[in-house]
Amino acid sequence: MYSSQFDANSAFNGGGFTSSQSTDHGSSPAKGRETYGLVPATVKQISEASDSGDDKSNFVINGVDVANVTLIGMVSKKAERVTDVSFTIDDGTGQIHCNRWPVTNFDELTFHFVECIHFQVQNSRTKQGDATTQSHSVTPSTNTASRDGSNGYQSTPPNHFSGQFSVEGLKGFDQMVLDYLQQPSNFGREKGVHRDELSQKLKLPMEKIIESIRTLEEEGMIYSTIDEFHFKSTTSV
């Protein structure tokens, strides 16, 4: 047990393996705080910690930027599941609920960060295209098809999927294909949607479907599944 005479400040200010170098404090609160990689803490301190307000750490304990902490306590309420293990740590100052997620394939870490980047990009596009999405109607797609009516195929039907995710800069046919693939019923299909179905349902010639598929693949919005004829959207509605 730690003695009640333990002085956290003296532990952080030189001696042992801690750095004795001072930090140049600026005028801002964030610059005026010390930063440590691993800090011993109690559950009570964690529960009372404040947000650091910057991107360099997660929270602040007693004026110290903290990213990682060590806890010592009694483990209870342990529940093992296939995906994770949950438990509660009680150190006498309080209780905290924890989850341990085992990593069996380290490719999951790479995938996680790629997924975070993808979500951030898509979220940014969604915010920028809100106005475009709201104003997007059947007119652009219908007019585009009508202008090409001389090619021998009929005008495109009304776009019933215009309320879905719209990407600024996509042509009418490209957006129609993306909207169809993003429908919940189609997004949930493991094998994806065959390009013949896209041509039949959207009443577009196959060359237009192939052209739109190529564009959407290059933009990273769709991908092929079991073969080069089945496709799925990378994002759902």
UniProtKB/TrEMBL annotation:
Q: Which InterPro entries match?
A: NA-bd_OB-fold (IPR012340), RFA2-like (IPR040260), Rfa2/RPA32 (IPR014646), RPA_C (IPR014892), WH-like_DNA-bd_sf (IPR036388), WH_DNA-bd_sf (IPR036390)
- Which parts of the sequence are annotated with region: Disordered? 14-34, 127-161
**Pfam families, per database record:** RPA_C
GO BP term, pick one: double-strand break repair via homologous recombination
PANTHER family given in the database record: REPLICATION PROTEIN A 32 KDA SUBUNIT A, REPLICATION PROTEIN A-RELATED
Q: Which Gene3D superfamilies match?
A: Nucleic acid-binding proteins, Winged helix-like DNA-binding domain superfamily/Winged helix DNA-binding domain
**GO cellular component terms, semicolon-separated:** chromosome, telomeric region; DNA replication factor A complex; site of double-strand break
Q: Where is the Replication protein A C-terminal domain?
A: 118-228
Report biased composition (Polar residues) as residue ranges.
14-26
Source organism, top-level taxon = Eukaryota
Q: Belongs to which family?
A: Belongs to the replication factor A protein 2 family.
- Name of the protein this chain belongs to: Replication protein A C-terminal domain-containing protein
Subcellular location field: Nucleus
Primary location:
nucleus
Per UniProt, the keywords (alphabetical) are: DNA damage, DNA recombination, DNA repair, DNA-binding, Nucleus
Q: Which GO terms describe its molecular function?
A: single-stranded DNA binding
